[in-house]
Design brief:
The chain is an alpha/beta fold. It has 20 helices and 21 strands. β20, α17 and β21 form a beta-alpha-beta unit. The longest helix is centred in the middle third of the chain and has 22 residues. The two termini are 46 Å apart. The N terminus is likely disordered. The structure holds adenosine-5'-diphosphate (ADP).
Length: 649
Amino acid sequence: MARKQATAPKKPAPEAAAPTEPETTAAVEEAPVKAKTAAKKPAAKKPAAKKPAAEKKTPSSRKKAAPKTAPVTETAPTVEEAPVVEEAPVVETAPVVETVPVVEEAPVVEAAPVVEEAPVAEETPVVEEAPVAEESPVVEEAPVAEEAPVEEAPAPSGPVILTHLPRRSVAFIGSECHPFVKTGGLGDVMYALPRELVRLNCDVRVILPRYACIPKEYQDKMVYRGEFYMDLGKTGRNFYVGIMEYICDGVVYDFIDNQEFFTLGRPYVNLVDDIPKYCFFAKAALAALNWMNWIPDVIHCHDWQAALVPVYLRTLFQNTPVARAKTVLTIHNLRFQGIYNIPTIQYWTGLPDYVFHMGALKQKYEDANMFKGGLAYADRITTVSPTYAWEIQTAEYGETLDAHLRYHSGKLRGIVNGIDYDMWNPATDPALAHNYDLGNVLDHKMENKLALQQELGLEQDTGKFVIGLISRLTNQKGLDLVNAIVPQILDGNTQVVVLGTGDKQYEDAFRYYENTNKGTFCACIQYDEARAHRIYAGADALLVPSRFEPCGLTQLNAMHYGTLPIVRETGGLKDTVQPYNEFNGDGNGFTFDRYDAGLLLDAINRAKTLYFNNRYHWDEIVQRDMDKDVSWANSARQYKDLYMELTPW
Ligand code: ADP
């Protein structure tokens, strides 16, 4: 049953969920606010039309003004206009109304005259799906904008926004994002895709938990944006929701603060803790959008931790402003689904009974599957490669959701990930011993190899074939295949470097190989971003023999650093690595198909044969891989097209 509450929320909840006084309420209330809304009728439903010309921000102007308001969409009820009082002073210069969750230049916050145009959902006739609002879930606090969020100065090269493209607003909701918190590829995507979408003229807000483990450097840059209280499921309590904001390169990051849920040293702990945490987070993220009065065109959710967002949106939030948004749910890894017994999920979410059926959240007899529910309610489902989109509809890769995904296949598509060229650039990468580009890769890669060998205590010899493996050490990553053939790989001319943490059995196996092969095998059982960069630069080849791989980023990083991938033909590995063809010289790397250690060894041996017998051709592939476009540009355009498809106005 439900987990007991461990600690009290940061602030005591006000007794009555008192809809605060009209003078101070921004009335950007979320969730079922039925009772509250009856009293006041929103005067303007289309605030965009009223927008004062002077206030209209072009995307470029948005970049210039330092501490600016959150990016504003033209169509969404923007922060400026919505709660503006009839006789509101001009926002640019005048003190900002307290109720407006705007962080304009003037940080003054004084009570404003009555807010009339509260964009609260009017009392609507009960929609079939809309559950009866249990009680007002949120207790509004005065949304005080204390100080302007720190906006990082855009890089000198800055994001160049393609203003001729149609403009859309998107809220990303997910559980991790580089550089704040990252455990794998999801963190990379949450960082890189929003930045690329900004270039494509999207206003992007990324909503994340404010984990205590976020480095102090970033905690210090966050600015308090406001707070409110929100009810949660059947807990009978109102939970504190703080919003901390940070703006960088045109992307607004809003961190949901609640010390009860986010104090641990790492984002994922165990299901007992994680289920309530993400039930809270998904609801708080939607409530925060309403509270900020920033209603995006599209809400883009990521993995099971945010999968309840589409479910909440079409149930508890159905009659609130945010319900006008369309939803996209991206599967980064179907293995993790957020499954727990139905009573517990009901307790933490308060979702109506009708979502707990086999077509939505229910699974087997008594379980609720958060990912499954999200897939049912999302307007579009994406996954991170076309091959994985196909694979997950089969029993072998579907993780028991294959039938569900086949049912929803009409709204499912695969868009392959890219990598961020600012973060992954061998020409400027500060972690490398020697920077290089396409023109001088052949010389400088050798220097990086020597530096890597020295750093890791391997025999320094440019003639050795160095194989890297950078991975979470879990059963997904094909490590049992690697373990089975390490003795055959180490033939006297080959060195192996493993960087990763994870399951003890793999950590121990790699430590064993290091102990028995000093100087030729190195096991770095750690998570070390800078070392990962140096391995990409210093190795000749990178192993990615995954059992399944939704997209995989390591093979992309490797190619971009002139390191040839050796991969199993599955998921995104199949889509991004074209096998080397010894007859016509085409290809980017070496591949094998069945999950079999012998086939992996065969692929490694083919790579070695080319490396030692035909270096000229090897080097040609190195250059071709570095030249291959693995950036986000193309993939981000596909996401933008998807958003446009959903919002074709
Ligand atoms: P997954 O998301 O399944 O872990 P991906 O290939 O999509 O795998 O993404 C892995 C990302 O994490 C890559 O950017 C990779 O460089 C990085 N990474 C994985 N393990 C480590 C590690 N031990 N140290 C540093 N970076 C790592």
